[in-house]
UniProtKB/TrEMBL annotation:
A GO molecular function held by the record: metallodipeptidase activity
GO biological process: proteolysis
Pfam families reported in the protein's UniProt record: Peptidase_M19
PANTHER family recorded: DIPEPTIDASE, MICROSOMAL DIPEPTIDASE
InterPro entries xrefs: Metal_Hydrolase (IPR032466), Pept_M19 (IPR008257)
The protein, known as: Membrane dipeptidase
Length: 329
């Protein structure tokens, strides 16, 4: 069985310590997508992070492997190594150039969403004015599909996410998003969004963040409750895990350079309170997820789907697109 964590965050710093990755592996995770930048990070910082992460992975081939396909993940699991790839949270690092998508793919980025909470020239954030997917955004969706990258709608405005899912020729995911019906927070996704995602063949991966789970000390049962809601609404084939654990490391300042305003990206009007930072499920929660999902009534086969097989299915389809295009040519 492959355990797949669709999104995690190390410090946005080239010298980030990979100890948290080892903790996830020790807890049974076989693959994790590491964030390498968001809309608030300039391209210079994103590229520095990618270079640093790639160097760490290359320096420890006995522990890590940067993957480009599902077969790589299966082989890494057999070898006892952690399979890794990268994700981008927002389109601003694309510099309004669809051609940048393929470049990031070559560097290890295997999933991307287009807006981090706020609007940009490509898409809408979930905490901003609804406009819809822009003309440039439609070209970006096509570029993501052509590059064989997972199209993600986390942090995206509701209307815009529906338009992205309608425009995509490939399954779309939410790598870390929870049902709005269970917790009323602007980052959570409506039943309509969950149903639209499932209609693409995609997966909604549940976040382990306290704000979105509705628990001050989130644990496996909190995650399982949200998974069970998705499974009941659209079927177990469309539920997954993306715990979104953000690992802080003393001594590494990853604050974006320039005039960075946290209140802009996490507005108080949307319910964010700087005096009450979020809490996260620990990496060890992975050991508890199977029993927690079983308590919701799922059988072993369904649990395997949630913990990895669903995302493997989608990645197998999406990541093989460039290879299929080459064969067709």
């Amino acid at each position: 069985m492959i355990n797949w964590d669709a999104h995690a965050c190390l410090p946005q710093h080239p010298q980030a310590d990979f100890t948290p990755v080892d903790q996830l592996r020790a807890a049974g995770v076989n693959y994790v997508s590491l964030n390498v930048g968001a809309d608030m990070n300039p391209v210079s910082q994103v590229m520095s992070v990618i270079a640093g992460y790639r160097a760490t992975i290359a320096a420890h081939p006995e522990r890590y492997v940067l993957v480009s396909n599902v077969d790589d993940i299966i082989q890494a699991a057999a070898d006892g190594r952690m399979a890794l790839s990268f994700d981008l949270e927002g389109a601003m690092p694309l510099l309004e150039q669809p051609e940048m998508v393929a470049l990031y793919a070559q560097l290890g980025v295997r999933q991307i969403h287009f807006a981090y909470n706020r609007n940009n020239s490509v898409a809408d954030g979930c905490h901003d004015v609804a406009r819809g997917l822009t003309g440039l955004g439609h070209r970006m969706v096509a570029a993501v599909n052509d590059a064989g990258i997972l199209m993600d709608c986390s942090h995206t405005g509701r209307r815009c996410s529906l338009e992205i899912m309608a425009a995509s020729s490939q399954p779309v995911i939410f790598s870390h998003a929870n049902p709005l019906a269970l917790v009323q927070h602007g980052r959570n996704v409506s039943d309509e969004q969950i149903q639209a995602c499932a209609a693409t063949g995609g997966v909604v991966c549940v976040s382990g963040l306290s704000w979105f789970l509705g628990s001050e000390r989130p644990g496996a049962d909190d995650v399982a409750r949200h998974v069970a809601y998705i499974a009941e609404l659209v079927g177990v084939a469309h539920a997954g895990i993306g715990l979104d654990i953000c690992f802080q490391q003393p001594g590494l300042d990853d604050t974006p350079p320039g005039a960075f305003d946290p209140g802009h990206w996490w507005p108080a009007s949307a319910g964010y309170d700087a005096s009450r930072p979020p809490t996260f499920t620990p990496p060890s929660v992975w050991r508890e997820l199977a029993p927690a999902l079983r308590r919701t009534g799922m059988n072993n086969a369904e649990i395997e789907q949630v913990l990895g097989r669903n995302m493997m299915r989608v990645a197998q389809q999406v990541w093989s697109v460039p290879e299929q295009l080459l064969k067709a040519a």
